[in-house]
Specification:
two-stranded antiparallel ribbon, Oxidized Rhodanese, domain 1, alpha/beta, six-stranded mixed sheet
Length: about 120
């Protein structure tokens, strides 16, 4: 994990492997900030959807029990939303460095779409 101090806040950048391990241990809340269409096509199992267009830091859960980890397709939107949350008073947030692209590159499982039926399917690379 890399950390960056932004004013009085700390932005943590996690690797896909760190996020996967924390998800498996139920230590994080993973929030996908991509569009609903991107999420429906493919997403990380257990990720909640809060699209960037409707992102409101006031609606984020507290972090007393679990760290919040934001993610998007490449890491750009999730970092931008973390910075927005810092402006709203959050002092520590994490995001998935490289986003969903790095998750897939790391060959971690995700929910994809069966192109023949349109139904969701588990993808284990």
């Amino acid at each position: 994990m890399q950390t960056e101090t932004i004013g009085t806040a700390t932005l943590e950048t996690w690797t896909p492997e760190e996020v996967a391990k924390a998800l498996d241990a139920h230590e994080v809340v993973l929030i996908d900030v991509r569009t609903p269409q991107e999420y429906m096509f493919e997403h990380i199992p257990g990720a909640l959807l809060m699209p960037m267009a409707f992102f409101d830091p006031a609606n984020l859960p507290g972090q007393s029990d679990k760290r919040i980890v934001l993610h998007c397709g490449s890491g750009l939107r999730s970092e931008k939303m973390a910075r927005m949350a810092f402006e709203a008073g959050f002092d520590r947030l994490a995001h998935l460095g490289g986003g969903f692209a790095k998750w897939k590159e790391a060959r971690l499982p995700y929910i994809g779409t069966n192109m023949a039926s349109g139904a969701p399917k588990r993808v284990t690379p």
